[in-house]
Amino acid sequence: MKRAAFTHPWMPVLLLIPQLTIIVFFFYWPAVEALRSSFYLQDPFGFGGTFVGLENYFTLFQNKEYLRISLFTVIFTLSVTFFSLAFGLVFAVKADKVLRGASTYKTMLMWVYAVAPPVAGLLGVSLFYQGHGLITQIFALFGYEFVVGVNYKDTAFAMIAVSIWKQVPINFIFFLSGLQSVPRSIREAAMIENGSPFNRFWTITFPLLAPTAFFLLITNITYSLFDTFGVIDVMLRSEPGNNPMTLTYKVYVDGFRGNELGGSSAQSVILMVLVLALTVFQFRLIERRIHYT
Amino acid sequence: MAHVSLKALEKIYPNGYHAVHGTDLEIQDGEFIVLVGPSGCGKSTLLRMIAGLEDITSGDLEIGDRWVNDLDPADRDIAMVFQNYALYPHMTVYNNMAYGLRNRKISKEDIDAAVRGAADMLNLNDYLDRRPSQLSGGQRQRVAMGRAIVREPALFLFDEPLSNLDAKLRNQMRIEIRNLQKKLGTTSVYVTHDQVEAMTMADRIVVLNAGQIEQIGTPAEIYHQPASVFVASFMGAPPMNMLEATLNGAGAIEVAGLGAIGALNSTPYSGPVKVGIRPEKVKLSNRQEGDNQPFIHEFTEELGAARLVHGRLGDMPFVVNLHQEDMIPEGALFASLPVETLHVFEADTGKRVAV
Amino acid sequence: MKSSVTSATNLPKINRRRRLVKWETVIDHSVLILGSALMLFPVLLTIMTSSYDKLAFAKNGLQFGWSDKFIENYNKALFEPSGFSGTIDGMTMLSNSLILGLGFAVGKIVISMMAAYAIVYFRFRFATFSFWIIFTTLLLPLEVRILPSYEVIQSFGLTNTYTGLIVPLIASATGTFFFRQFFRSVPEELVEAARIDGAGPVKFFIDILVPLSKTMIAAMFIIMFVFGWNQYLWPTLITTEEGMFTLVRGIKNIIQSFTDSNAIPEYGVGMALTIITMLPPVLIVVFFQSWFVKGLTESDK
After folding, report:
1. pLDDT of A253 over the 60 cut
2. Are residues C189 and C292 in the same domain?
3. Could you tell me if C165 and C18 lie in one domain?
4. Is the pLDDT of residue C123 over 50?
5. Where is each ABC transmembrane type-1 domain found (chain A) (predicted)?
6. What angle, 0 to 180 degrees and rounded to 10, lies between the N-to-C axes of helices A102-110 and C16-49?
7. Which CATH number belongs to the domain containing residue C153 in this structure?
8. Which of B158, B287, B317, C110 counts the most CB atoms within 10 A of its CB?
9. Is the pTM of this model over 0.90?
10. Which member of A108, A133, A248 has the closest CB to residue C40?
């Protein structure tokens, strides 16, 4: 709040009403509803439900498939986060260094940000198309038959690859902007004191990028958990079967396809707790984050 | 320690901008050289070429007995203090100072001794565990100095290190830097646009203008024998008064609109000149005598120890610097311009005319 | 002195450093070109394939070349009705996407600027409470409360309406947070000067704050438009009538037509529609790159 603020009997209320109305109806109500219905066993015909306490949760944790999906989600999230951060960082470091063509490279490496995840998924389907997709053919050269949608590992690989492709640009943008805000004189001081460019990067530049990297770490985990829904749905052609999927996709499958409302709600709540934990972690990091000026 | 030698150094940027023209400069071992000039004169470029932060287009650069044109900055055995200090924000004061030593594979004990020694010298002992963001401007400046001295380099480079400090601190640090340098005896090149820093700190001053050296000399030489109109008007506050005049080949000076103001001893030069006189050399009186010129008084600036009397001589603006004790005489004023204090420059080239 | 001169002249003047720099530069550029190619290639192949008939993809997958069906495919994609009901063509989906993108961006910006203005510039009871109520929404993305959100929309009878499509997406405080950060960076003296000049809250907002926020609004607009245009899960749930489909929602239909085993799918048209789907947001991001990057990276602070 500003030191010099206005006081007015009803104007702030008027200004806040639209936002508050929307979030009460479309945020708080659904969130509370998710929590509530996770304690109920829903009647599939819509005639209310029975209170079952934590039973939905217990069922979930005993469900082998759910545990398998959880494990896959962890692997998926870690791979997507790690590789998209790594590629984004490498490209950003190079783009920050070159003198010629820097702005062309920048455009080329960031525009994919604007591609919708399901569109990325569709591109992935074409590239991994059974028999004559470009990447399928490359694998065939090495004598490997790549079958997305049938082979669990192949499908997982394709989903991870497409999700990384889609996520590299945003990491690139943030890392590049982080690099460009490192003062030139600090780099020069380091050049005078340290003759090894590699060592210089890890002792000076990278620590200065740490706040950006923390922020991106959380962003990427959130992306992998939620925003990849479109990629997965399209690549599985809406036919989950025994294919790999993430927890978010499972919520959707159970809630809208399987009509397993109680279980789906319990899954939602678990995801909520996960996101909350991540966000709290992020805020604590930001709080502790060193202000470098 | 080392001498430094610049031979015909040139800097032309890829876009064609000619930042430094063939520059020759020999810096003696232990000397404190100040590069001074207006912004854009190439002084920082020159310093950065010595540091290895800018490529040398042509010419030779030697530090000690080594030809260093193509050496990386880290291999030149130099240390640099930057205008905004360029301290590593994520490291403590201790680590900021130790960083350069660690990269040279020096033993922990030696590093510790060097850092603590420097911290002692700079009164930084209580701050070794702090980060730069927790320090005041003056303390950061000291850390930057400390980082430079722990390395015991052959050459110190300073890029306007005091310009981010307030006036009081600047005076204090000026003296500290100079004392420290004297104690260590390290050859130093110091860039500034502040003529006071240049005059007070330098063994020799290099005045630069538009990528070219105007004059190299001791502060006294620069002040009393400026080699050009540029040096004369750049060094000194308030700047030297300049009058348009002509020399007649026999030493007689005739100022436009005023007439003869005196005669130099035998100067064969004839033609249009600029005649300069430092404001403190002018005397004011209310009697017309000799070659006195009528002075039209406009206003006075009180400076405490001195006062600046602004006015006109003929139609040219003219400033007189009077001591606190010297009162401005009553009535009509006349300025006397002692011939032995005049500086004469060729009007077209700006070069000093030998008197 | 003399010895130094001789030693200098004796040294061979090989430009050691410059040569190293050149090698490094070659590597840098190679990495960047490879990266750019990886980004561009899938889309380039799709564009090329969209100029072929359906048999080309069916036989050989993505095409590297150019054929003569380009105009025909795009014509079909945009104007030929398809889908189960046979009522939806590309143009309808395009206009639905535009409505979603624009409606979301404008709605979000207006609502969040109002809320941020109240929070930053007014002193009132419940200010802190409102702040927390709003910013808690940053914690949970729509995906985790998707099912109950859908039920709320259903109970309001808002399925298959633009309101149902757009409004719930606005229920997160990203925009408000962004404008709050920006307003806080506006110098305090401005409000004081405006008040001395007799401006009330409305005048200050319209005459000073909005003009000052122009770049921020532009940046937000681009980010939000792309975000809205690219929505997939929510439109998939909310729109069941084909006349309400957006282009991104339509991707599901393309992929389902690809799996259709009864006839050879219209691959060329499908590729064309894919390109039409990604083109508007990509063009906006490329052309307004600097605003967009600024908006993204500043919201982090």
Report:
1. yes
2. yes
3. no
4. yes
5. 70-282
6. 40
7. 1.10.3720.10
8. B158
9. no
10. A108
Interface of A with B in 164-203 (CB under 8 A): 183, 185-186, 188-196, 199, 203
Which residues from chain C sit within 8 angstroms of residue B72, using beta carbons? 17
Instruction: Print the domain residue range for C211.
Output: 73-298
Q: Are C100 and C183 within one domain?
A: yes
Domain ranges of chain A: 52-289
Ranked by mean pLDDT, the top range of A158-172, C174-188, C236-250 is A158-172
User: Is it the case that residue C4 has pLDDT exceeding 60?
Assistant: no
Question: What per-residue confidence (pLDDT) applies to A79?
Answer: 97
- Residue C18: closest C-alpha in chain B: B70
Q: Which of B48, B50, B76, B88 is the mutation pick for testing A, counting most A CBs within 10 A?
A: B88
Quick one: tokens of B210? Answer: 């538009």
In this prediction, residue A120 carries a pLDDT of 95
| Confidence check: pLDDT of A115 > 50 | yes
For residue range A224-234, what is the model confidence (pLDDT) as tens digits?
999 999 999 99
Element (H, E) at C297: helix C289-298
Q: How far is CA C16 from the centre of its chain?
A: 47
Rounded-to-integer distance, Cα C201 and Cα B299, Å: 49
| Shared domain check, C173 and C293 | yes
Q: Which residue reads 């060329």 in tokens?
A: C268
C14 shares its domain with C147? no
Q: Report the residue from B26, B64, B67 with minimal CB separation from C11.
A: B67
Is residue C61 in some structural domain? Answer: no
Between the CA of residue A103 and those of A99, A169, A176, C116, C231, what are the distances in Å? 9, 14, 12, 34, 29
Which subunits have 3 or more CB–CB pairs within 8 Å of chain A? B, C
Q: Is A53 exposed, middle or buried (0-12, 13-18, 19+ CB in 10 A)?
A: exposed
Subunits close to C (at least 3 CB pairs below 8 A) = A, B
* Chain C from 253 to 272: CB within 8 A of any A CB: 254-256, 258-259, 271
**Chain C environment of B71 (Cβ under 8 Å):** 17
Q: Judge whether C64 lies within some domain.
A: no
Cβ C25 vs Cβ A98: under 8 Å: yes
Residue C284: the pLDDT is: 94
Answer whether residue C233 is part of any domain: yes
Look at residue C10 and tell me whether its pLDDT is greater than 60. no
Q: Total domain count for chain C?
A: 2
ipTM: 0.88
Tell me whether residues A193 and B103 touch, CB distance under 8 A: yes
CB atoms near residue A265 (< 10 Å):
26
Q: How far apart are CA A190 and CA A198, in angstroms?
A: 12
Neighboring chain A residues of B52 at a CB cutoff of 8 Å = 191-192
Cα A8 to chain centroid distance, Å, stands at 42
Given this model, what pLDDT does residue B288 score? 82
Residues 5-24, chain C: which have Cβ within 8 Å of B? 5, 7-8, 11, 13-18
Lowest mean pLDDT among A79-93, A277-291, B234-248: A277-291
- Any C CB within 8 A of B3 CB: yes
C83, pLDDT greater than 70: no
The mean predicted confidence, pLDDT, of chain C is 84
Which residues of B touch chain A, with CB atoms under 8 Å apart?
51-53, 72-76, 78-80, 82-90, 99-100, 103, 131, 133, 147, 151
Q: Does B72 touch chain C (CB under 8 A)?
A: yes
Q: Which of C119, C122, C144 comes nearest A272 by C-beta? A: C144
Q: Please judge whether A109 and C39 are an interchain contact, meaning their C-beta atoms are less than 8 angstroms apart.
A: yes
Residue ranges for chain B with pLDDT beneath 50 = none
pLDDT at A43: 61
Same domain, C36 and C77: no
Amino acid at C216: M
Q: Which CATH architecture has domain A52-289?
A: Orthogonal Bundle (1.10)
Residues C100 and C160 placed together within one structural domain of the fold: yes
Following DSSP, what letter does each residue of C48-116 receive, concatenated? Answer: HHTTS-HHHHHHHSS-SS--S-HHHHHHHHHHS-BSSSS-B-HHHHHHHHHHHHHHHHHHHHHHHHHHH
| For chain C, percent of residues with pLDDT exceeding 90 | 35
Residues C271, C186, single domain; the answer is yes
